[in-house]
Design a protein that fits this description.
By secondary structure, the chain is α/β, with parallel strands linked by helices. The chain contains 12 helices and 6 strands.
Length: 303
């Protein structure tokens, strides 16, 4: 417990893909009596291991993991469910006098816990808007709230739909940024590399490793196990690479590995932008300063 505000402590490790967040989390968990909570939107699916870069069986023996690979790809899942379950797990870990360590690259998953957003509105229904263009949705959003509409990317259809639904389903002036009182004393570690070139090189190397480890066979197994599933419509296959590889398997065409690498690099760039704009970082882990990071964490725990 924090002596300053009496809030339970939650350590947060956020960063782009392949930045060794899990490795650092395991180190901290072992040093400071912690347990790890997954905050990656796709590592929740038990059938998806390799392509989501989920913790290995070896890593799971070295630390306790929560909300990791515990639901099926055909189960309903959304960020509201994550927020509810995550808070339950944080309380469970805290009650054992242990340190909750929230780890992931999904920025919104991190923020709904750190900032304690009030998630309201109905489950997104994309079919309701299937006949409307992104431009129409954007103009509709402008009518609701011009200032916040300017923050949206016109190409992000899912986010546009969600925002429009929030305004339609509530009578609130600004339902996009509702926050409750913070529930946790958080310390945020950003994991990254010293240069963008190092990050991109790690991504390229990781994709090659995932292919060698059997990523394609993993997807073939999923397809065989769920023969009646429309994989183009399930949330799980929005994870980069899964749908691309599925289409190649289905059409018996070569897998464009370079495109997958490029898509993941672009995703990492978006992750970094999110962190820069949305997170107040307490310390940066750049792969070379682990001792300093652990020192900062220790100081925070003692406060």
């Amino acid at each position: 417990m924090s002596k300053n505000n009496k809030l339970p402590k939650v350590l947060v490790i956020i960063g782009p893909t392949t930045s060794n967040k899990t490795k650092l989390a395991i180190k901290i968990a072992n040093l400071f009596n912690g347990e790890i909570i997954n905050a990656d939107a796709y590592q929740v699916y038990k059938e998806m291991q390799i392509g989501t870069n989920a913790p290995t069986s070896y890593q799971k023996k070295k630390a306790k993991f929560h909300l990791n690979q515990f639901i099926s790809i055909i189960d309903e899942w959304n960020i509201k469910k994550f927020q509810t379950l995550c808070k339950e797990v944080v309380n469970e870990i805290t009650n054992k006098k242990k340190l909750p360590i929230l780890v992931g690259g999904s920025g919104l998953y991190i923020n709904v816990i750190v900032e304690n957003y009030r998630l309201i509105g109905k489950q997104r229904d994309e079919n309701k808007f299937e006949n409307f263009s992104n431009e129409y949705l954007y103009q509709k959003l402008i009518k609701f709230d011009k200032r916040n509409a300017n923050k949206f990317n016109l190409s992000n259809r899912r986010r546009l739909i969600r925002a429009v639904q929030l305004y339609e389903d509530t009578s609130l002036k600004n339902p996009l940024n509702l926050k409750e009182k913070k529930e946790y004393d958080t310390f945020i570690v950003e994991a990254n590399y010293k240069t963008r070139e190092q990050l991109y090189a790690s991504i390229n190397k990781k994709v090659d490793e995932m292919i060698k480890e059997g990523w394609v066979d993993e997807i073939k197994k999923i397809v065989k196990f769920f023969p009646k599933t429309n994989f183009r419509n399930i949330n799980a296959f929005k994870a980069i690479g899964y749908l691309q590889i599925f289409e190649s398997i289905k059409n018996n065409t070569p897998i464009d590995i370079d495109k997958i690498k490029r898509d993941i690099r672009h995703y990492a760039k978006r992750q970094i932008t999110w962190i820069k704009n949305k997170c107040k970082i307490d310390v940066l882990f750049d792969q070379t300063n682990e001792t300093n990071v652990l020192h900062k964490v220790r100081q925070w725990i003692k406060k």
